[in-house]
Amino acid sequence: MSDLSLTARREALQRDAATDVAPFRPFAALRRLPIGLYSSLGLLAAWTLASEFQLAPALFLPSPVTVLRQFAIVATDGFSNATLAEHAGTSLFRVLTAFVIAAGVGIPLGLAMGINRWVRGVFDPPISFYWPIPPLAYLPLIIIWLGIGETAKIALITLAMLAPIVVSAQAGVRSVSEGRIQAALSLGATRRQVFTHVIARGALPEILTGLRIAVGAGWGTLVAAELVAATKGLGFMTLSAAQFLVTEVVFVGIFSIAALALTCLAAVRLLERLLTPWKGKD
Fold it and tell me: Among 61, 80, 174, 187, whose Cα sits 20 to 30 Å from the Cα of 208?
């Protein structure tokens, strides 16, 4: 047998061995983890070290273990005459109610503003005027007009959510190409069919993006909405704890609001994947 054939046979055996036995890579699994997980763990480690070495007084920066223990206490014994579940349920009801109202009004209005210039001319100035104003600025007017009950709180959150939904729906209509509309008309589609199957479908990704922005705006306005005459709610609980310098409960309220907000955002993202599977594939 020649040296060439022996060399070829040896190389073949080495290739088979390489395919049968995968190389040992101890950090391969770690590389597949999300980058955000590392940053979150880094922040948690920095927080733990700062509290452990008492870089800040415990009154200002309690340890993660203390906050976790306070979670259990508030969940079972409650704070400000309500448990954590009751506070969270009240806040979730306010935000979801405002979200339904804002989406029910904002999506049709934004579509109409994108289609009809008269509708856009009537509603664009007031929406553009109030959108940049912080909710705390027009909260006194809401209280004067609607009182201090649940209606005022839901109205404030609704206004914070309405503008991004309207603007996104309007931008979605403008993003639909004129060629698709003309192609549908040339194939015999009615105006209703063009609106339903071309305009509304083409605007759907922008609308869902606006809904995600509105969810963030709604949860960001929750604390302002619960400033006045509230007896339950995560924002009310957080503000009450801050007044009595119960910093652990303040952290509990902040993390609870963040958890609910992230859950709502995840739900909208899931809805986006279900309703617009073609997004990014055109």
Answer: 187
